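Self-study notes.
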Amino acid sequence: MSCSLASSAPSCEADTEKEEDNSAAGKNLYNLISTMKMLGVFVLCVCAMMDLTPAADLPEAKDENDQTASSPLVKRTVFRSRYRNRYFYYIHTPLTWAEAERNCQSMGGNLASVHDTHEYHGIQRVIMAASHDYKETWIGGSNGQEDRFWLWSDGTLFHYTNWCPGKPVYSQGQQHCVLMNHSAQKCWGNLQCHYRRPSVCAKKV
């Protein structure tokens, strides 16, 4: 804008300053708009990159009845069921009695002790639900210290028994460990501890 000759000098200077202020404001607005456009493009690029990046695989959820033992010995599927005040874990993997007991200890329990007929049938139901059969299975009884003196590995009293006819057998002190679902009667037998069988662990709730 040009000042006329009739205009006073102070008025002309004021108009010039206004024009400069308007010009500066316009430049600032232009710069702001340009910056916002660049930010918008950047955000779109980031979103596109996120869409193209494969997501990390998430661990599959596990059912309560299908869990994996943390033991270095056994990392296969086990079956868990609650009965009274204990959880019972059926371990499919055949192990020696000592390996089975150590595996149960790594899970915070012991091979299962049995204290009455109802509990025995409850454990049988756990085995049937897991394996669809009444398989011979290690439980926590042994007489490794002295023949005819049976103990549970969890330290509870050995006051209930369910021996099959003719059992237990004492053969030169070798039949030290107890298994359940033995013979056609599905009762208790004793067997040399180095044989491999599935097992049942028990852990207090």
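Second protein, same conventions, sequence then structure:
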Amino acid sequence: MTGPDSIAMLGSMPPIRALSSYCLELALAIAEICNVEFISFKKIYPAFLYPGKDLKDDYTFPTIRHHNLKVRQRLTWYNPVTWVVEGMFTKGELLHAQWWSLPLSPIYIITCLGFKLRRRPVVFTVHNISSHEKTLFYYIICRILFKLGDHFIVHSAQNKAQLIKHYSIAPERVTHIPHGPLDFQVQKNVDRDVIRNEMGFDAAEKVILLFGAIRPYKGIDTAIKSFASVLHEIPEARLLIAGKLWEDWKPYKGLIEALGIAGYVTACLRYIPAGEVYKFFDVSDLVVVPYHHFDSQSGVGATAISFHKPMIVTNVGGLPELVTDARYVVAPKDPIAMARVICNCLRDPVQLAEMSAGAKAMAEKIAWPGIAKKTWSVYKICLGS
């Protein structure tokens, strides 16, 4: 036997937002090798779990078409019957479950248990080794859920070490496979100057992008403080913050006003639909990922790589693995160091071009065909092939 003819995958698919960008790319890549039955959601969360109860679906994702990929959008958070049905009757020689969210744990436990009762292996891709809020309950639930796993995939070397240590999993049962670039978000034939004009930037301004949900661990304060220092050195610098609010914006607004930089900061505080993401990356000159702590890999970083954007990250989680030069990795919560690196980059067009070339090389290194082959190898191990 060379490998499975078909597998089942559990996660989210468009128009559900959640982890759909990653799942879309992975499922399409695996579908180039075998048949994929994707178990997705009709209703993924109760509305009260989201800020502002904003759980609208995103219909700007590209249409999913592949002859080897079938998407089943039947799971609902409120109906356990759907969990049992998917676990007991979905085709596939194994289940590949994408794990990232504590509220989904009852659904995952029941669905995975259904596959185990049918003697079919379960592979987990663990996107968050611990919760972003560092809750003990997440750790407890993971220990229960992971007992159903035969093999585990993580996105960085540090994540592998953490998973082995925190959950007492044998090293040979954990495989490091990187998070691939989110290439579907890249748009062709984009007029950068037109988009810049629409967003209020002129051609001479140097735009620093901070993208993604506004949450406490994301280091928004570090970015704002570092930008204030950058602005003193590079008057044409601008900071573009884009993402859905998961916390109160008032402290950040107060910080921006106190530093006297309000006229140089553009904040787009909403969920950015998949079909609009390209605008923010295309207008930017540099992307910053200033997280305070992080135990995973970054979808924002993967998106920046897709656009071949220069990127500066903090030394937490798997972020350093996203860049090809250690000069662009700074300590977390250090706005002075962040500002120094930003200034060095923005002042030197040659350096920015080298960073862009490095991002392009990284995109090729972690391309989805290679990820699919590595994942396929994990499937074969689980099936004893």
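Instructor comment on the second fold: Residues 219 and 290 are 5 Å apart (CA to CA).
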